[in-house]
Design a protein that fits this description.
The complex is a heterodimer of chains A (about 260) and B (about 800). By secondary structure, chain A is of the alpha/beta class. Chain A has nine helices and eleven strands. In chain A, helix 3 links the parallel strand 6 and strand 7. Chain B is of the alpha/beta class and about 800 residues long. Chain B is globular. The chains are: A alpha/beta (about 260), B alpha/beta (about 800).
Chain lengths: ~260, ~800
């Protein structure tokens, strides 16, 4: 069997503990309008025009984004930096896109890693069939779990999907006693409101088991030209830059509620 | 830092580099006096040494704690006419050139014109050297295949061990007397040579004591005229120190440092050894004195810090002697490569990191001077907090200290037959060169342009820049049918040029042995006294000659591009590529784009490229390693460039990796600038594919933006990177932490960045003192900021 992978990055140090290799799956059920990896959304191989510059001249070339790979092929890439992840107590992170969309492939990969003693992290948007989470829970050391907008109407508007299943899945994982880090994309005007933050805090505090910590991911506008290259609808031009004071206020709210913030 | 140190440091920073005629005049007078005709060469050289320290002007600056200048004032730099005499035209260049200039006064110019040049013309070491080199050597040297370190500077490249911390010069003289008395003129055919060498050593040891006494007399005199009571006491104290060391073994930290400094001045005045001289494992040597002084109340931590800071300033006052021509291009800097080693292991194999290691790191952080250079040795036995402390200094963008693998260095040295205790007393000096401190002579003989050898191969023995045939005819490149054929031709060509270089080395070694022994340096390195043999004639316990390979990244990418585009995808024919190279890619821009952006590249943990690095490395190793020299040394390889990748770049036409004619080659074992796209772990994996334990040092440069070091997880990740690289037997890594915008601004507004120090390659330099091409190159090196922030 093969999985559709859109990128593999080495020396990632913000996707879980230590030095990690992050495997980006292609295909995502959500369409977050600020997505900074838009090329990871469609579950298919795409041709994308790439420019290189040399002495002021531009050279264009169509390159395909997305590659079908076997479990062994991906695992070979993971093993390349194994010596670094061992030294730093790091490992592998499956991200995307949404890795849960290719659940069988993901499970095979997780099993392969666990068998070799490699620390596993799954970075998920939470939008997947509930049984799939229980299915991979045993092979996953850490979940990086996105929470964006607690208001279901707003959630639909900015991601295209309801948040009900996302919240339920989080409860399920928490009840299984899994180690979870909540990732909160802090998008000015879309998720940054105090009401949303307060609702999120309330929800997190009610989760069964240990209180997960939260990592706030402030929005950055790096992705603009990616949208152009992908000829995708770009709604993010109007998003203002993150207000630092606003960010600090939000961190304080979490901390006041006894939730630790990862930087 | 306190007011005294602040002022001394400021004065050192503001001091102007000048060329001093003092030494050249003293040496010229000595040689012209005719004494040299009546004594043996070693004794003659010892007498020249004594004349210098008898006649040189003394310089003791207000507030100084450690005293002694090589020239009449700070940064007044002597020349060494017995090695190479500067012409009036050279002096004009030195005076006027934009970078690394030396002010030449009218008086200096006159001294050169009237007495120095007339005496030395045609009689210098450099003249002898050029007369001895054959056509092949001159062609290869002229074409930029290799450089020659011993053309304007003497062999040195050694580091002091612990001898001076338990022996005064009087003790050493007693050792010499003892060896003299043991000489057997009936049985030993070398007894005469040994006795002359030993006598010479004794003269230099006495000369250093005499020089210290001259200083003591001056200090006494200064004390009489000093109005400030505190300073008066200080001057008398320093005078007493000068009367105790170097004659006797030091008892205090102040005496130990002053003793070292006298010895340093001796070595860098006797001749102009490459990489000046170096106290090496300073935290190990000074620890007993530091502990003793603290226990007795002679010093506090603060006053110890002040002494070390005063010591640091002395190094900064002594720029490398002026270099010209190719030698200036291969090492264009004021830095004289005195590399302080911290940490590592004790001779018994235990963790050597101590309180003084951390205190000296404080000194490095606060002083932020160009000289001395500094490094930490990291063994698996050393604690992480030692690395963390060093990274916090590196993060400030100062480019120091660099980080070395102690366990790797020990394996390199023991492979070459050193006793393990000697190896553990060693470390790295200069840029990255491994050596056993106090027991080894390890001479760098010149850089070697690996990509140029490929270029000559692609032109069947002809240098495309001159049109002259300087190499072997290794086959018509248009007819190469496989990579094996390309590699076979390259290896023949490589062997041809290495043979030329080694023949030259073996002659040059003899020239120094015959004409320019160094009895003073020989006092300091085991086992010159016991053997009665000079440092330049194999007196050291261990003797090594290095040839330093340059451009591994460029040649690897070039070979990988040929394999991929010609023999794998067949997108281009060999003819297409050769034609494009001939016209420097003019009208082949599309091809050049493919070669640069869509080819396998070294530094990405990609075997398609890395296999060629391994093949080139092995070929270079096979051609050089273990080849003997007359004094009993063995040739070994190194992979480091100083600034030679720029010079060699100028001498190399377009290459199949898309590099244009005249532009810099890759440096050290680092990837071609900008071609490592898979992040630092991939770079380190690639670099570790060559067997670094069979070298005497490799240089790897990684540039990070400061933001990467801001958070604790960044520091931990970098520490893990270092540990892992060393687990894979990597030799050295240096981090250049600076952001590109800062550098661009510095290029535009140099006046605002007078203190900006960047890591160049194996050393740090003021950004403003670098040529524009080197500045551009540093800006160009891959930024890892995006990776850090993903």
């Amino acid at each position: 069997m093969k999985g559709l992978i859109f990128d593999i990055r080495r020396f990632t140090i913000h996707d879980g503990p230590g030095i990690r290799t992050t495997i980006f799956f292609k295909g995502c059920p959500l369409r977050c309008i600020w997505c900074h990896n838009p090329e990871s959304q469609r579950p298919e191989i795409e041709a994308i025009e790439t420019e290189t510059r040399l002495d002021g001249r531009e050279f264009k070339k169509k390159l395909s984004v997305g590659q079908l790979m076997t479990v062994e092929e991906v695992f070979k890439e993971i093993k390349k930096d194994r010596i670094f992840s061992e030294e730093s107590h790091g490992g592998v992170t499956f991200s995307g896109g949404e890795p849960m969309m290719q659940i069988v492939f993901l499970k095979n990969l997780l099993e392969r890693c666990v068998a070799e003693g490699i620390h596993t992290t799954v970075d998920t948007c939470g939008y997947a069939t509930p049984e799939n989470y229980t299915d991979i829970a045993a092979q996953t050391n850490l979940f990086l779990y996105d929470l964006k907008q607690m208001d279901d109407q707003l959630h639909r508007k900015i991601t295209g999907k309801s948040n009900a299943i996302i919240l339920d899945n989080l409860k399920t994982l928490a009840s299984l006693g899994k180690e979870i880090v909540i990732r909160f994309p802090f998008i000015p005007g879309l998720t940054s409101g105090t009401e949303n933050v307060k609702a999120m805090i309330q929800f997190i505090k009610k989760l069964p088991g240990d209180l997960p910590s939260v990592q706030i991911l402030p929005y950055h506008s790096l992705a603009n030209n990616k949208y152009e290259r992908l000829q995708m609808l770009n709604e993010i031009r109007n998003i203002p830059e993150v207000d630092q004071e606003d960010l600090l206020r939000t961190q304080k709210l979490f901390r006041k509620a006894g939730i630790s913030i990862l930087s | 830092m306190n007011q005294r140190i602040y002022k001394l440091r400021q004065d050192s920073l503001n001091a102007i580099n000048t060329l001093s005629e003092e030494r050249a005049l003293i040496i010229t007078r000595f040689y012209a006096s005719g004494i040299k005709e009546s004594v043996s060469t070693p004794v003659m050289r010892a007498m020249a040494f004594r004349s210098f320290f008898e006649e040189k002007s003394l310089c003791i600056l207000p507030g100084e704690l450690i005293i002694g200048e090589r020239g009449p004032q700070p940064k007044a730099t002597p020349t060494f006419p017995e090695i190479c005499v500067h012409s009036i035209q050279d002096l004009d260049i030195l005076n006027k050139r934009e970078k690394v200039s030396f002010v030449v006064s009218e008086q200096t110019r006159k001294a050169f014109d009237e007495s120095i040049i007339p005496y030395w013309s045609g009689k210098t070491h450099r003249d002898r050297l050029m007369n001895q080199m054959d056509e092949n050597w001159k062609n290869a040297y002229g074409a930029g295949i290799f450089t020659e370190f011993q053309e304007q500077r003497a062999p040195g490249h050694t580091v002091l061990g612990d001898i001076i911390y338990h022996k005064g010069m009087l003790d050493i003289i007693a050792d010499i007397e003892s060896e003299l008395s043991k000489l057997n003129f009936y049985q030993d055919s070398e007894a005469y040579e040994k006795s002359e060498e030993l006598k010479a050593m004794k003269i230099t040891a006495e000369a250093l004591i005499m020089y210290a006494e001259r200083n003591a007399v001056l200090l006494d005199e200064m004390a009489i005229h000093e109005n400030d009571d505190d300073r008066k006491k200080e001057l008398l104290k320093i005078a007493a120190i000068c009367r105790w060391v170097p004659a006797h073994a030091p008892r205090t930290m102040h005496e130990a440092i002053q003793y070292y400094w006298f010895v340093h001045l001796g070595v860098i005045s006797e001749l102009n050894p490459w990489d000046s001289f170096n106290p090496g494992r300073l935290d190990q040597h000074l620890l007993p004195f530091y502990n003793g002084d603290l226990a007795s109340g002679r010093l506090t931590k603060e006053s110890a810090l002040e002494l070390l800071q005063a010591f640091w300033i002395k190094f900064n006052n002594h720029p490398a002697p002026p270099k010209i021509g190719v030698t200036a291009e291969e090492s264009n800097t004021y830095t004289d490569f005195s590399l302080i080693n911290l940490g590592g292991l004790k001779p018994d194999g235990s963790d050597a990191v101590n309180e003084l290691s951390f205190l000296i790191l404080d000194v490095i952080e606060e002083m932020r001077l160009l000289q001395p250079s500094s490094m930490i040795q990291v063994s698996r036995k050393n604690p992480d907090n030692f690395i963390h402390r060093a990274l916090k200094i590196i993060k400030t963008g100062y480019g120091q200290p660099s980080i070395f693998n102690t366990d790797g260095i020990i394996q390199q040295l023991t492979r070459l037959g050193k006793q393990i205790q000697d190896a553990r007393k060693g470390g790295a000096s200069g840029c990255v060169e491994s050596g056993a401190f106090g027991t080894e002579s390890y001479v760098l003989t010149g850089y070697f342009n690996l990509p140029k050898v490929l270029e000559i191969t692609l032109y069947n023995g002809i240098d495309p820049l001159s049109g002259i045939k300087i190499g072997l005819e290794t086959g018509n490149p248009y007819l190469f049918k496989s990579m094996d054929e390309v590699m076979a031709a390259f290896k023949l060509q490589l062997q041809f040029f290495i043979d030329i270089k080694i023949k030259g080395n073996n002659i040059i070694e003899k020239l120094f042995s015959h004409h320019l022994p160094v009895p003073f340096l020989s006092l300091l390195i085991d086992d010159c006294i016991q053997k009665g043999r000079d440092y330049n004639s194999g007196g050291a316990r261990y003797n090594t000659l290095y040839i330093q390979g340059v451009g591994l990244g460029s040649i690897t990418d070039s070979l990988a591009a040929i394999r991929y585009h010609v023999f794998e995808t067949a997108r281009y024919t060999f003819t297409d590529i050769l034609n494009a190279l001939k016209v420097n890619f003019k009208a082949y821009e599309e091809m050049r784009n493919e070669l640069i952006y869509y080819s396998p590249k070294w530094g990405n943990d990609n075997d398609e490229a890395d296999q060629f690095a391994v093949q080139v490395f092995e070929a270079f190793y096979e051609a050089v390693d273990n080849r003997p020299s007359p004094k009993g040394a063995k040739h070994r390889i190194n992979m480091l460039p100083t600034t030679c990748h720029i010079y060699f770049g100028k001498k190399t036409s377009a290459l199949p990796d898309g590099r244009l004619a005249g532009t810099p080659l890759s440096e050290g074992i680092s990837p071609v600038q900008g071609s490592d796209t898979q992040g630092p772990t991939a770079v380190l994996k690639s670099a570790a594919k060559i067997d670094q334990l069979r070298t005497g040092g490799t240089l790897l440069n990684q540039k990070f933006s400061p933001s990467f070091f801001e958070k604790e997880d960044g520091i931990k990740a970098i520490t893990a990177l270092v540990r892992t690289y060393f687990r894979m037997d990597g030799h050295h890594i240096q981090f250049n932490v600076v952001n590109v915008d800062t550098l661009r601004d510095a290029q535009k507004h140099p006046e605002k960045y007078r203190d900006l120090i960047v890591r160049v390659a194996g050393y740090s330099d003021y950004f403003n003192d670098l040529g524009k091409d080197l500045q551009d190159e540093i800006i160009h090196r891959t930024e890892h900021q995006n990776i850090a922030n993903n």
